[in-house]
Structure formats: C-alpha cells, structure tokens
Amino acid sequence: MPTHAPLLPTSPPEIRAILLACLPNEEHTLPLEALTAILAARGRRVIMLGGSVPVESIEATVRQIAPAAVALWSQSRNTADLPLCRHLAALRWGIHGARTRSRVLLCGPGWGRRSDAELLRPQSLTEAAHILVSASQLAGDAGATGVKGAPRSA
Fold this sequence. Notes:
CATH class: Alpha Beta
Shape: globular
Number of domains: 1
C-alpha cells in the first residue's frame, strides 16, 4: 500500500497592511476609526495615521510600508486633494520588472463626485471596507496591484 506524506497545514498568505489617513487640514477622524475597527475585526493589519497628516508623512509612510491600499479621508471639498492622491497612486516600489503599487481610495463626502481612472471612490464605509479587505488579500495572494472589478464612480 502506498504511503502518503502527511498533509501539512498551509500558512495563510502574507497580508499587506492597509493605510488610513486624513488629508492635510482634515480633522474628522471618527470615520477612519470606525473603518480601522471593521478592518481589524476582519483580520487586516491597519495603520491609521490620524487627522491632518502632512503630505510628506503620507508619502513617506507609503514608501516605507508598501501598503496594499491607502484610504484618504476628506470631509469637505477644502481638504480634498486630487493631485496628491494621483501622486500616491503613481508611487511604485520593488525590484525592476516586478514593481507594485498601492490602490488609493477617495473616502468621505469631501470628494463629491470627483473620480479618476486610477482611484477608487467608495460611497460608504462598508464599501470601503470591502474594497480594502479584497485589496489586502489580493496583494498577499499574488502581489497584485489592484482589485479586479472594484466599483468606481463616474
């Protein structure tokens, strides 16, 4: 009778962290606190930078931790900075030929109907949580750079 090697449990794929931050001059952190709790309950690693985060700090953190996704909160149009978000979405790291990037989500009412082909615009915290969980899992599974089929606003 042939013998079979015992089945060893496979370790879960590495799940990259998710970065949450308020844009400069944005002090409304409560929605990101709620999102942090939702994501933590789903077993995701979350780094929440808090309110009114300087541009340089957001960029440095993205470069340093290479998050699967970055959710940027804007409560009002005065704090929504689309050029900054495009810049963060364009950052790439890794070895040549295998570079990766973070998905960037525009969260909060300050974005209005603004959108961009490279940026995701969830309409609720529940939708944002779903996209972020998917992005972190895909990034861990295959080093993916995005979420296939993720909803985008027009």
